[in-house]
Specification:
- The protein is an all-beta fold and about 250 residues long.
- About 0% of the residues lie in helices and about 55% in strands.
- The protein contains no helices and 24 strands.
- The strands form 6 sheets. Strands 17-18-19-20-23-24 form a 6-stranded antiparallel beta sheet, with no helix packed on it.
- It is globular.
């Protein structure tokens, strides 16, 4: 599917799987019909678009980028219904809560903001402070009661969305972290960054996360042998007692 005039930075499937949204450095977001592979809508920002997310209903699309704003689009009309302002730098990441009543955003202004729709209009209800570097990724837990954020400061922070309290700061990466994700059951968080490592943190699923174990997966090489590709990884499991085991794996 071609149509953007610059690099494509972010992608998201609609909840029903019928559409794909693509965000680009060309200042646009394009909505693609996956049945026909045709662009059915083009949504415009004032600058590069870094992130895109579908509301759980599939009727609204959120976009964010270098114009320091988050835009909410009605996909039936293609109109921007609200522009969220509050960040002082580029908005790098956005995510809807599972029930769709909240939105979280992470910015290069080093803050994480929570937006709420309970009044019928999206409003910023909380600004989470603590990161000392650009915020690069955000994610809601499957229950929607916690938010995780990653940063240039080499940490992952886990926040209580009701109190705004930072429940824990996960420190094992040795360089910038670019991406995080919750496991569907909520007991694991994955993070990856410039240290060439993907880490999987085991956390409690109740009130306070306890990262008593994390798994480090360093991808060292991917040699092509004949018609098969082998991914060589060194998996290191670190436990709370300070002991560790290492096991090379081929897959």
């Amino acid at each position: 599917m071609y149509g953007h005039t610059s690099i494509v930075i972010a992608l998201a499937f609609s909840p029903d799987g019928q559409f794909l949204a693509s965000a680009s450095d060309d200042r646009t977001v394009k909505l693609w019909d996956l049945t026909t592979a045709e662009c059915v809508q083009t949504l415009e920002h004032a600058s590069c678009v870094w992130s895109v997310a579908f509301h759980p209903t599939g009727k609204t699309l959120a976009t964010a980028g270098e114009d320091n704003t988050i835009k909410l689009w009605n996909l039936e009309t293609g109109c921007c219904v609200q522009t969220l302002k509050g960040h002082q730098h580029w908005v790098k990441a956005i995510a809807f809560s599972p029930e769709g009543q909240r939105l979280v955003s992470g910015s290069f202004d080093r803050t994480v903001k929570l937006w709420d729709l309970s009044t019928g209009v999206w409003m910023c209800v909380m600004t989470l402070l603590g990161h000392t570097g650009f915020v690069t990724s955000v994610a809601f837990s499957p229950k929607g009661d916690r938010v995780a954020s990653s940063s240039y400061d080499q940490t992952v922070k886990i926040w209580d969305i009701h109190t705004g309290k930072c429940l824990d700061t996960l420190k094992k990466h040795t360089n910038r972290i670019w991406s995080i994700a919750f496991h569907p059951q909520g007991h694991l968080i994955a993070s990856g960054g410039d240290d060439h490592a993907a880490r999987v943190w085991e956390v409690a699923t109740d009130s306070v996360p306890k990262p008593y174990k994390d798994t480090e997966m360093r991808f060292m090489a991917s040699p092509i042998v004949g018609s098969k590709t082998f991914l060589l990884a060194d998996m290191k499991i670190e436990q709370s007692n300070g002991m560790s085991t290492s096991m090379p794996r081929n897959s």
